[in-house]
Amino acid sequence: MPDTYDTLRSVLTGSFRVPDDVIHPDATLEQLGLESLALTELVLILHERFAVKISGEYAAPLRTVAEVAEHLDALRAAGPRTVAPS
Q1: CA–CA separation, 68 vs 62, rounded Å?
Q2: Structure pTM?
Q3: 3-class secondary structure for 45-67?
Q4: Among 20, 27, 75, 79, which is disulfide-ready with 52 (CB 3.0 to 4.6 Å)?
Q5: Greatest Cα pair distance in the chain
Q6: Dihedral, CA atoms, 24, 74, 34, 10, nearest 10 degrees?
Q7: Residue 17 · residue 6 · CB < 8 Å
Q8: Are the CB atoms for 82 and 53 separated by under 8 Å?
Q9: 28 - beta bridge partners?
């Protein structure tokens, strides 16, 4: 998870201008200020970065950064363009 978490953290700080000091594993996407449109954009960015297809339902405001990173790891382990159940 460290590489995935670091990449996710980089996306959050770079694309969404979330301050680095507020990103931690237990922070929810909602706490980081990501609302509906931003969550959709996050899914698209992560799809491009990790070459996996993420179910839109998975990018929910109450998901934590750690949960998203773990989900990405599971998708990557399953193979490219895989949709994992939410």
Answers
A1: 10
A2: 0.84
A3: HHHHHHCCCCCHHHCCCCCEHHH
A4: 75
A5: 32
A6: 60
A7: no
A8: yes
A9: 64
- Tokens at 78, concatenated: 């399953």
44 SS3 class = helix
Domains parsed from the chain with CATH numbers: 2-78 (1.10.1200.10)
Joined together, the tokens standing for residue 60 give 């929910």
Sign (positive or negative) of CA dihedral 81, 83, 84, 86 = positive
Tokens 């694309």 sit at which residue? Answer: 15
pLDDT in tens, 26-79: 999 999 999 989 999 999 999 999 888 887 777 788 899 999 999 999 998 887
